[in-house]
Q: What sequence folds into this?
C-alpha cells in the first residue's frame, strides 16, 4: 500500500473575487505533485461556494494528471438518476480521474427544505441512491421500485470509464457511516476524526463488508485532515481555531488536526497511517489570503516525505 495526498481549498470563500482562482489551484497541485483536488458541497450558503460537479468539469479541462473528487457530495439532496448521468459523463470524459465521495449532507434543516427533501430519512435515502446509481452504471436496462426512487426500463450512456462502475467513497465519522461503507461503498473518506477513531472505524468497515459478502480494498480508507504549518504549535492552533468547519463537543480540534512545524505535520500524518489510513485530503486552516502559501509549504516540505514511491491511485 502507498500513501496518496490530495488537497481541498478552505471552506470559507476562497477565490470568490477571482474566477481564475480554481485554475491557479489546479496548476499548484500539478506543480507540486499532489495526487488529487477535492471540492466541498454547499448548495445553500452565505459563503462563496462553487457547485462541485460543474467546477470539477472545469478541473478536468485544466489538468490531465490531477485526480479530482467531492468532499463530500450531499447525496440526499440530489436525484440519483441525474447524478449518475453526470458522474458517468465526467468519468468517461476524464478517463477515470473522478472520485465521487458522498455523504448525508449538513445538519442545517433549511438546506433539505430548500431542495425539497426531508432530513429525517437521509440515511436510507442515501443507501438506496448509491445502489440505484451503481445499477445504472453497470446495467443496460434498469427497473427500480424503491422506497424513495422509481424508474422502469431505463438506461444511461455513456457508461463510466472505470469498470465495473465508478467507485463511490462515503464520508461520515460515525460507526453508522463506517457500516454504510461496508454495505454499499467502495471507500471511506472521514473528516474530524482522531487516529484512534480511524482504527475503530476500519474494523467496523471491513467486518461489515465481510458480513455482506463484499470486498473493499485495504487502502481505501481516507482522512480529510485540517492543517496549519507554523514554527510554533500554539500559534498554529490559534490561527486554525476560527477555520474549523464544525467544532466537536466531545474532542478538541487539536486532536484531529495537524498543527505546528513541518516535522510535527509529518508525525501527525504518520500517526494516521499507523492507524490504517492511506489516502489524505489536506485542508489549510487559515484565512483565504494564506491558502496558497500553506498549500505550497505542504507541497514543498511535506509531500516529498510520503511520495517516494510512485503516486498512488485511489
A:
Amino acid at each position: 500500500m502507498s500513501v496518496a495526498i490530495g488537497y481541498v481549498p478552505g471552506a470559507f470563500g476562497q477565490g470568490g473575487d477571482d474566477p481564475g482562482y480554481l485554475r491557479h489551484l489546479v496548476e499548484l497541485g500539478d506543480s507540486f505533485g499532489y495526487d488529487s483536488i477535492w471540492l466541498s458541497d454547499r448548495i445553500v450558503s452565505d459563503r462563496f461556494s462553487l457547485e462541485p460537479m460543474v467546477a470539477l468539469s472545469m478541473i478536468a479541462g485544466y489538468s490531465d494528471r490531477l485526480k479530482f473528487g467531492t468532499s463530500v457530495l450531499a447525496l440526499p439532496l440530489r436525484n440519483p438518476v441525474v447524478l449518475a448521468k453526470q458522474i458517468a459523463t465526467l468519468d468517461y470524459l476524464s478517463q477515470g480521474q473522478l472520485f465521487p465521495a458522498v455523504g448525508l449532507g449538513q445538519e442545517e434543516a433549511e438546506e433539505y427544505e430548500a431542495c425539497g427533501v426531508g432530513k429525517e430519512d437521509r440515511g436510507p435515502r442515501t443507501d438506496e441512491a448509491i445502489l440505484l446509481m451503481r445499477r445504472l452504471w453497470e446495467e443496460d436496462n434498469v427497473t427500480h421500485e424503491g422506497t424513495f426512487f422509481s424508474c422502469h426500463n431505463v438506461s444511461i450512456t455513456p457508461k463510466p470509464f472505470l469498470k465495473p462502475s465508478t467507485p463511490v467513497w462515503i464520508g461520515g465519522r460515525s460507526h453508522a457511516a463506517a457500516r454504510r461503507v461496508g454495505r454499499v461503498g467502495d471507500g471511506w473518506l472521514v473528516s474530524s476524526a482522531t487516529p484512534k477513531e480511524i482504527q475503530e472505524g476500519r474494523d467496523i468497515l471491513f467486518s461489515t463488508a465481510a458480513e455482506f459478502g463484499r470486498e473493499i480494498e485495504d487502502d481505501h480508507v481516507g482522512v480529510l485532515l485540517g492543517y496549519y504549518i507554523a514554527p510554533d504549535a500554539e500559534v498554529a492552533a490559534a490561527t486554525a481555531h476560527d477555520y474549523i468547519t464544525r467544532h466537536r463537543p466531545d474532542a478538541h480540534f487539536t486532536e484531529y488536526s495537524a498543527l505546528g512545524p513541518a516535522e510535527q505535520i509529518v508525525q501527525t500524518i504518520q500517526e494516521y497511517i499507523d492507524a490504517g489510513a492511506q489516502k489524505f485530503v489536506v485542508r489549510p486552516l487559515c484565512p483565504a489570503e494564506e491558502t496558497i502559501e500553506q498549500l505550497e509549504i505542504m507541497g514543498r516540505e511535506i509531500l516529498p516525505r510520503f511520495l517516494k514511491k510512485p503516486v498512488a491511485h485511489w
In short: Residues 230 and 260 are 5 Å apart (CA to CA). The two ends are 11 Å apart (CA to CA). The chain is about 40% helix and 20% strand.
